[in-house]
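Why Putative oxidoreductase YciK? Reviewers of the renewal asked for a concrete example.
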Amino acid sequence: MADVDMSGKTVLITGGNSGIGRYTAIGLARMGAKVLFTSRNLRKGDVARAELRETVSKQQIDCMELDLASFRSIEQFARQFIAKYPRLDVLVLNAGSVLDTRQVTKEGFEMTFGANHLGHFFLTQLLRERLEESSARVVVVASDAHRGARAGLNFDDLMFERDYKGWAAYCASKLANILFANELGRRFDGVTAHSLHPGVVRTGFGRDGDLAGPIARAAISLVRPFLIGPEKGAQTSIYVASAPELEGKTGGYYDKCRPGKRSAAAQDDDAAKRLWEVSEALVEQAQAMRKTKS
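Here is what the prediction returned.
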């Protein structure tokens, strides 16, 4: 990938202040792209921006605040991005979290589904015009954990209100990521989308940078020494974001920089369509409730 030239392209990465997102930002900036990454904690984002600017040129790296668990934050971010950036060539939906205990977003959605999928869905909708104008590529960082949702998404209980298990909610959110990517390429004019498995990566995920509780943190700590590093984990994200051979192609799933295998549930076009329609309805519902309160 070192020979790929991304000069003149604008890349947006959610959750790029640490882990896979951080190294994805470095890799794409080194190819010449102008990279904007987001952080839900602006202080941590500013620290990461200063550090990354020492690695690549100052002109190629920027950071903005974004909390995917808040529609107000997403709307504010989208307005600021559109005002500042006339292009969006690559959107990398990288941010994600896993939780031991059930929590909810500002709009009342279960946090794992709300941030990992619905927040990214809403953000992508708000940036749709920019994406279509630029014939953009959308990269969705999913996971082979999607296989844990063997029966597919439970549309009768997407918010895990009846029986919350943190890992089950995470697996479902990763399946939602793949279905979203599959459907996006069919919905947006001229925009392509792919999902990927980054590998089992040793990052701050599930630790102090995320919202996971003590049980998940303990489990992750036990296996952490055996995991790959975030720099290696970012390689598939970098590949899918920049590979010339993916130009014009959509709906792929990649692992170790080559086509990967998805579960049967992740190839269900009817479920992808239904998830899209349900997500639209949930966004409209949340918007209507906010207007009523204001």
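Residues 205-212 have pLDDT under 50 and may be disordered. This is the kind of structural detail the renewal will allow us to pursue systematically.
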